[in-house]
Specification:
3 helices; 5 strands; five-stranded antiparallel β-sheet; globular; 24% helix; alpha+beta
Amino acid sequence: MTEMPRFDPRDSGWEARVAASFARQSFMETLGARIALMAPGRVELVADEAPGLKQQHGFFHAGVSTTLADTAAGYAALTLFPKGFGVLTTEFKMNLLNPGRGERLVASGRVVKSGRTLTVAASDVYGECGDGSRVHV
């Protein structure tokens, strides 16, 4: 397994800044998403199963998976930016491997390469079941 690169934030107050920005995302509130882990260059989001998040077959809607993936990657990038900077997605590619099943979705975003103005980040989304098993979505 490849070791995660270590990054140094360019703002000593990065944790409070990222948490405050996330709190302003009303769509995350709509999804019931919350930050489960925050580290320099890494953010993990969790959204629990809810009727409004399902598609017609009972799985999490792909829009929930992609939104969590995009947001986790963006906030992973934001952990490394200086105060006064924001993050917007410039390009996004999603491969759906499995239906979003389980009691919750977990999106793990990580920075691959940190730049001054452009940062490359990636996300993996997993469906977690009550028995602790995970499905890579």
